[in-house]
From TrEMBL:
<dbReference type="InterPro" id="IPR013154">
    <property type="entry name" value="ADH-like_N"/>
</dbReference>
<dbReference type="InterPro" id="IPR013149">
    <property type="entry name" value="ADH-like_C"/>
</dbReference>
<dbReference type="InterPro" id="IPR002328">
    <property type="entry name" value="ADH_Zn_CS"/>
</dbReference>
<dbReference type="InterPro" id="IPR036291">
    <property type="entry name" value="NAD(P)-bd_dom_sf"/>
</dbReference>
<comment type="similarity">
    <text>Belongs to the zinc-containing alcohol dehydrogenase family.</text>
</comment>
<dbReference type="Pfam" id="PF08240">
    <property type="entry name" value="ADH_N"/>
</dbReference>
<dbReference type="InterPro" id="IPR011032">
    <property type="entry name" value="GroES-like_sf"/>
</dbReference>
<keyword id="KW-0560">Oxidoreductase</keyword>
<feature type="domain" description="Enoyl reductase (ER)">
    <location>
        <begin position="8"/>
        <end position="343"/>
    </location>
</feature>
<keyword id="KW-0479">Metal-binding</keyword>
<protein>
    <submittedName>
        <fullName>Zinc-dependent alcohol dehydrogenase family protein</fullName>
    </submittedName>
</protein>
<dbReference type="Pfam" id="PF00107">
    <property type="entry name" value="ADH_zinc_N"/>
</dbReference>
<dbReference type="InterPro" id="IPR020843">
    <property type="entry name" value="ER"/>
</dbReference>
<keyword id="KW-0862">Zinc</keyword>
Amino acid sequence: MKALVFHGSGMSAWEDVPDPGIEDSTDAVVRVEAVTICGTDLHILKGDVPEVSPGTVLGHEAVGEIVEVGSDVRGVRPGDRVLVSCITACGRCRFCREGAYGQCRGGGGWILGHLINGTQAEYVRVPHADLSTHLLPGAVDSKDAVLLADIFPTAYEVGVLNGHVTPGDTVVVVGTGPIGLATIATAGFFTPEKIIAVDLDQFRLDAAKNLGADAVALPGDEAEQLVEDLTLGLGADVVIEAVGVPESFELCTRMVRPGGHVANVGVHGKPATLHLEDLWIKDVTITTGLVDTHSTPTLLRMMAAGRLPASSMVTHTFSLGDMEQAYDVFSRAAGTGALKVVLGEPQHDEVTLKTS
């Protein structure tokens, strides 16, 4: 089969690799119908994730058809169309029993495209298939459903739920890439009074407005002044960091009100200063986290009911064989206007997000 293989910092190739097979009795093999590219994949290609060994197939998000299952798999069978979760769950360890699947100690957690071969391929082996795949209704389109593998659960759980968004809140989302946009969309479930989006890119700010942001601002003084004006000097109830750089995290801590929540979603590669000399007296709660995907069934029902605006976030579609071109487009998002790119069965022309 063909797959995108990591060959070390700055090096990858769409090339022939052996087909995956059943290795453990709880495995399933999935024929991939749709995959997407995550910002984490770009970090891997830059050499920022040293746990990924050269020779690993990248990718941790997919939709596809079950073609083979191990003898202990009970929840899915060949022919089923499934969502492959970015998080693998054994279901038996302490953390899985608590629903904290991202911290699985039984051979799960984030392993696809990280510690084992991933989903950016024609076929993928999925360990612990009963808890790590989700049956898809026929009405849910594959290119929409694949966004439930990672970005929507991550935004909802690590951003909105960890941030304790409640009705009437003022919510600030710093960073309107795919995760930030999914955060804006799912924060709307809780009817906040105002959602403020902060980003450097006007195209992404326009996308944020389409997904429910009430106001937008550039980072820095403009954002801080807007939050102060809209909250009469109080500060935001919830501030969600969706970038992963020190400046954005520190901006979040300056915009939160006393007693408020800062929910960090962004993946940080450098230390950020925690100004406890200012924060200790403000009763601020700061949370971090890796997604657990416990919310995936709920989000899937919301998507099936037409209440999750996933399709508007897909700006480009490609065939699987165009993987290297798709990476190029996604990695140059500032110039290409890419939000999410989806690859799968042979596609027609690229789809461009409508912002009006």
